[in-house]
Amino acid sequence: MDTRPVAAASWDAGESLADHFRALANDAEHLYGYAMRGMAEDWAAGGPTRVACRGYETAPRSAMIQFRLLAGLFRLVLTGEAPELIRFYPCLGGTEPASRAWPVMREVIAAHTDEIHAALAVAPQTNEVGRSAALLAGIFDLVAASGVRHIRLLELGASAGLNLLLDQYAFRADSWHFGPSDSKVQFADAIVGEVQPGSFEIMARAGCDPNPVDATTADGRLLLTSFVWPFELDRH
Ligand SMILES: C[S@@+](CC[C@H](N)C(=O)[O-])C[C@H]1O[C@@H](n2cnc3c(N)ncnc32)[C@H](O)[C@@H]1O
Hints:
With about 240 residues, the chain is of the alpha/beta class. It contains eight helices and five strands.
């Protein structure tokens, strides 16, 4: 887990954290859109968001402080420390309108300021198995072009290494399929355009990451889950 302090050197001059929060929220009507607009106002007004973000005032936009905060909040929900928010989190069965969530989120931030503050030290690690589709298309092309069918996969920034397991996922298209059809990870028409499907075998796989995540542990699963937006049900 990346707990290095966020560098202030590249602070986007003249921009406050509220500006960063607003810029990513835009007019989005999903849970995080409302949350980020609420956080922006609350930060500017000196509310609990401002208190939780102490020390990060000059963090650059690229540090994505808002996603660190929202992941910390999500972890509180997932670990049962903020049950009042479950009703707004679709991946947990919540059906309440996102537009009503912010005041409740603000209360939770106020009640857990230190935990939220600690969460800001954890850089987002969004794992996206959907990227396996691009990897598969590339491997198909290489196999077709070279005739080589024995592959070694090496990934930089593998995080939990989920994309190193692409041969355990099922891909389906009109004219071809790949992988075990009963896989828990299913992709339909994930590759746009022509592919040249061919068989291959992954002989070795390895990944490196400054902050590797072990998805087989409870803590690893919690971390990975917390960075997936709660209303993106397919990704959950
Ligand atoms: C957004 S995650 C992507 C995880 C995975 N590759 C995927 O596509 O689902 C980016 C990962 O890159 C790692 N990372 C950041 N800087 C790195 C570096 N200099 N060398 C290797 N990995 C790095 C982070 O720790 C993080 O786990």
